[in-house]
Amino acid sequence: MSSDEPLPLAGLKVLDVSSFIAAPAAAVALADFGADVIKIEPPVDGDPHRNSFRNASYPQSEHNFPWQLDGRHKRSLALDLKTDGARTVLERLIKTADVMIVNFPPPARERLRLRWEDIEPLNPRLVYCSLTGYGETGPDRDRPGFDITAYFGRSGILDAARYEDGPPGLSLPAQGDRATAMTLVAAILLGLRRRDQTGKGGWVGTSLYANGVWANGTSAAGALLGAKLPPRRGPDRPGNALTNLYRTKDDRWLQLLMVRDDRLWEKFCAVIDRPELLQDERFAGRPERRAHAMDLLAILKPVFASRTFAEWEQALAGTGIPFGVIGRLADVVDDEQAAHAGIFADTDNPEIPRTVNNPIRLGFARPRKAGPPPAVGQHNDEVLAEAGFSADEIDALKKSGALG
């Protein structure tokens, strides 16, 4: 990794004309690797996501960790896009930009003249990336989409993942948004590759709905042929006691995933110190073990409850028996393996000294270290001066209300 080699996206100018999470998170990933991201947001309050840390569904903290996560590396330009003066600013920025990211619903894009067909004449080399909840066309194109409704709900994930006879569960904040952000990054890079080949920009994009179905692709591909998932049984009613969840002595949950029990049954009985199970006719073969899953569950529950997860990890490691822990976030933040995997990143913000890294790893570059995220309109004068506006013009924009 060369220290004097520029980051791969250095020199790329990105206009982030989006709010909340999936689209801004895509801009963060580009910024991590060197892109100059200008966040265009409403004056005064800015992107509503600036206050997401106050939501009751978020981990509770007095520190604005979501904004550090999704606002890092960006320069903030506060523009009221409904004004003529702001349009003048935006058009000048578009003419020199490489990428523009938007996630307004299609009707809002039409009103604000932010569709690709509105933008293309200004800069045919621009890669224009849009995100919707459900798609650019169709009966639901104008419906507001959030990850829990479009990505998890409509895609079938929540229904397919529920236990038999139970209600659908709920996802945690922004899980689908973050996965979708990486699809946006990939789409943008494909657009830039096309520009390298032809000199032309173009529209790229995705929807939360499409990403949810893609994430649920194995089940969805079966559904196309009429195949149906068997009902999911809870850990107290497993169809297979050897691919089930078990609570350990220290109140952890161990996921046993012994799908090849025909090969591992004898070894498993030795590891759990129950050799007599090998002589039990109820568990003589795979069909018998499935047929008597509840009997085997009754035996294994107290066995796993008798030791801590660490003890089971030591006993099972190296045996070839697949297992895993149901991780807790409090453990993940100090996980040695997470450090090796580069999952977290240090910052230069003393209030929030660590944040979550984007998941892309490169053998030739590391993401740059972030400082504090910008205040609303923090870089107004700087960005406009770079775009060629004089001090008098900037002052006039402020007086007109176009600039916050």
Short account of what is shown:
The chain is of the alpha/beta class.
Walk me through this protein's architecture.
39% of the residues lie in helices and 12% in strands. It is of the alpha/beta class. The strands form three sheets. A six-stranded parallel β-sheet has the order 3-2-1-4-5-6, sandwiched between helices. Strands 7-8-9 form a three-stranded antiparallel β-sheet, covered by helices on one side. It is elongated and about 90 Å long. The mean pLDDT is 95.
The amount of beta strand, in percent, is: 5-15%
pLDDT < 50 runs, ≥5 residues: none
Order of helices and strands: EHEHEHEHHEHHHEHHEEHHHHEHHEEHH
What is the domain tally?
A: 2
Computed CA radius of gyration, to the nearest angstrom? 26 Å
Question: Could you name the CATH homologous superfamily of the largest domain?
Answer: Crotonobetainyl-coa:carnitine coa-transferase, domain 1
Q: Calculate the mean pLDDT score and round it.
A: 95
Main sheet, how many strands, which sense, barrel?
A: 6 strands, parallel
The CA-CA distance between the termini, in Å, is 41 Å
Strand line-up across the major sheet:
3-2-1-4-5-6
